[in-house]
Amino acid sequence: MIALFKNPTLIFLFLIFILGLSLRFLYFPGNIYFGFDQARDAFTSLEIMQGDFKIIGPTTSLPGLFHGPLYYYIFGPIYFFTGGNPEAVSTFLRIVNALGIFVIFFIGRTIFNRWVGLMSAFLFAISFEQTQFSIYLNHPALAVISVLIFYLGFALIFFKKKPLGFVAVAIGLGLSIQFEMAETYLVIPLILYLIIFRKNLKILNKRTVILSVSIFLLLISTFILAEIKFGFRSFITVRQSLTESSNAVYFQNIVLVNLRSISDNLISYPLGAKLLGLILLITAVIFIYKNRYRKEIIFLLIWFFSGNLPYIKDTSSIPLYYHIAGSTVTLLIFSGFLIYKLSLTTYAVKLFQINRLFILLLLIPVISNYNLITTLNPKGSIPAINVQSGMLYSDQKKVLDFIYKEADSQPFSVNALTMPFNINTVWSYMFEKYGNQTYGYVPVWGGDAAQGYPGKITVEKNGSKLPQKRFFIIEPNRGIPQYLIDGLQKDEDVFSKKIKEEKIGEFIVQSRIAQEH
Fold this sequence. Notes:
By secondary structure, the protein is mainly α. The protein folds into 2 domains: 8-379, no CATH class; 393-514. Helix content is 57%, strand content 6%. A 5-stranded mixed sheet has the order 2-1-3-5-4, sandwiched between helices. Strand 1, helix 19 and strand 2 form a beta-alpha-beta unit. Helix 4 (86-111) runs antiparallel to helix 6 (128-135). The protein is globular, with a radius of gyration of 25 Å. It starts with 7 loop residues before the first helix and ends with a strand.
């Protein structure tokens, strides 16, 4: 162990890991977002621990198409052994994302050299985009590592002639599809690599290919079982979607996503991001034209531009953040390579032999990412990840603390203006887990609650049968029409009278008492 720390590369890599870990735990646990998706997944993960096994995950944006269920089985034990605490799962995800520092180091070292690997790892450690993935309490967060494993496998085959890299490709592809259905697009770069770098595939033997295919089929076996059980529902859904969709390609969102990737990783100033994007593209073309690092640059370009595929038909006003999980890492590797070429000596690189240009080139992403991290990360996931901002677990616990204090150990009911509307999954989870564990009892839900959604809290729609003490929670109302807010507030006023109101974070909590009729 002591000998390992005498290696300067390992020392630097360890320090970079500590830096990355520190940035990911900055503002923890106050910036954990816990909305409907998170509560739903927590309920499902705990059901699995009770023996209710699943072969499909949550639905995608395309009705009839589902994500994989593997992450339920990963989250389940963590929730189970911590009493359903989201903070424990968030801890796990932040550590997993930070481990990507080692994976990107190996990719950079495999394609170029150890110095490029270290530079890439450093840029990954300070990346605002990666800190956002690390604090995202949901299944796409895991796809960052699996996508990196996918490309590490190809890097090992093409640049180190290691056949076992194909096993890593299979593992990365299978896990990525499990963690985020949109990552199915990885099949396209896989095909491109097999065609363009086909001469490098001669090192693969029959045994390695069979092992890799078997591992991949095992990892996606839940999809195969689900298709058989539900009459190939997903296959039919995808086929119909492809035949019904237009041939139009929406370049506006593709450009937006690419600029956002540059902004959230390297330079956050709009004009600077556009200029840097142009410089990176021109530089890559020059390297290819002059046949210098052609193979390496083509490898990275296929990796980067393949990340645009999920956005080809995207017409949303805010393209989702997590479809690009892992694809923008190429920006960090290529930037690390350029910094290395521009600022270190062209001869044998020695420790600490750096120049002023090196410092200047590093300061730009350091300052840019630091500003984004300190400005946006305290608020949790950004709107491009979670639409309903402000659903912080730390504030939700404060809401419950306020309610139980006001209830003073007496029975009470709770109603809430929720997003999605009339779905009480978040608050049912909060009261069943945090409320019951901390205060020993749970309230009655005093309002409409859509059926079929997770949550076991008792629902009583008849206002006259509710306890005297009542509470009304108004969630952060972005995306909730004002008439729904006004209507639900009027309904509350029919049966109860507001006696106190408290603003906690982005939540409003009203303490109420039953009206006499």
